[in-house]
Amino acid sequence: MPEPARAMRAQSRNLSILCIQLGFHDAYPDASTLATTYNDGIYYVASFVQHEFPDAQVEMCQMFWGEKPGDFPLADYDYILISALATHFWSNIETLELIRRAKRDDCIVIMGGPHAAFAPYEALRYADYAVTAEGEIPAVQLIRALEAGEPVTGVDNLAYIGGGGELTLNQVTRYGGIANAINPALLARAPRLHWATVSMSRGCPFDCSFCYAIRLLGRRFRTKTADDVVAELDAIYAQTGCNRFYVTDLNFTTRKDYCREIAERLRGRDYKFIAMSRINHADDMDLVLDLKRSGFEEYCLGVESEDPAVLRAFNKKVEASEQTTRLLRFAENDIAIHSAIIFGLDVQDRPAIEATARWCADARIMHPVFVCLAEYPFQDLLYGARQDVEDHRIIMEVPTYQHYSFVGIFPRHMRPSELQQGILDSYEIFFRHAFEVERRPQRRARLKAYSRSVECGKAGMQRHIRFLEELEKPYYTASGTLKEDRLKADFDARFGELRSWLSRSSKRTDVQFVAGYAR
């Protein structure tokens, strides 16, 4: 930024800030019943920024609700904060181009969310800075540094292009107690919400290999106070009228004493919750029922598979033989279970996929979401982080990149289109068997509702199958085995220079950084 412009901005206290949540591609919507009506991360950042800069004008553009950045006066803002998953990023390149054209030259664009954290080299094509972990404090640190004309080298969790043209990664910092709450005024334009999203805690002590969330929020479990949680829920309800909440904590039931305190404080309120947990939550049915009396009637459980080999590959510290018993225990107590069931490992052939889909019905999972193993490339290179899929087998830079329900890898012994067809067929297998197994009217009604929501995503899956059939043609033998040498050569030809550029900024040999990133 030119020095005169920076000096002029430093004199102004009345900043104008636009926060944007990028949305899904029209052809590839998130059709699962857990598709939230907003992602809470950008709202926590916006609320914290507003608190720290009380004179600033902070606005929200929520593309999930049909709002468009082009409908806002983009040339009027000093800062534009953008949150995105990979699929949001690659589905909205035209929107990002529009922002770049329409904003003022001295406007700073900051991108956060999973895509900025794990693919900052892509985010920085359209942003001046990318935030690679928790974003509230770094956003404020960055704005204060820029307003004061100070260097940004001390800003936490920041990625940017340095003076030498290389990717620069600042220190990773994890924060302690989180008193931050969503400012309900940011939800003033919300339509009727099916779910409102909130967080009650951050961090997860476990180390499942596929889970990127721990690198965003850390492994140290940190809670809000029960009083703060209740105040936030009440404020969102007063603003929106929504009394159903999706708790975005990585593992809400980590501490039983905290769960009991939350249950006690929420008793008597007509709120309903979906919370994320582990399957061993079923081992304390007294706690489960205590929480149920306070509205916790649904859980997203980290089940992933019934196959012991798959669970070992994912570093899941659960006993596969006990999963069905535990899931049935939830069903017997009218607790609805959602779970992502992951396919894509080499050991998961078509019969294994079909058996898993049938098992989901036998285990009485109410809302299985069949997904593909997905990775961001260059994670091992940049951060020293484990990857389950090699860089060259990842399908990049398409609207379905990191969408999970859409296959994003080249499997070794199954064409991508066959794996996508397996995911699509898994729903038919599940629903057919679930309606045979499930006799309770209320649960059958839920299955019917979920079936209708899955139906909305079938056209996208079928479209993706046709895309994959063309993409995969050069890379498989007639028997369906991956021509890995050819795929790797083509990947190296396309992304070799990018990999070399990233390697010059790599942190994998920085023990302190890698430890902080993985914590």
UniProtKB/TrEMBL annotation:
Reported cofactor(s): [4Fe-4S] cluster
The keyword Iron is assigned to this record: yes
GO terms of molecular function: 4 iron, 4 sulfur cluster binding; catalytic activity; cobalamin binding; metal ion binding
PROSITE patterns from the UniProt entry: B12_BINDING, RADICAL_SAM
Domain Radical SAM core positions: 190-405
Keywords associated with the record: Iron, Iron-sulfur, Metal-binding, Methyltransferase, S-adenosyl-L-methionine, Transferase
Superkingdom: Bacteria
Start and end residues of each B12-binding domain: 76-153
Designated name of the protein: Radical SAM protein
Species this chain originates from: Actinocrinis puniceicyclus
Organism ancestry: Bacteria, Bacillati, Actinomycetota, Actinomycetes, Catenulisporales
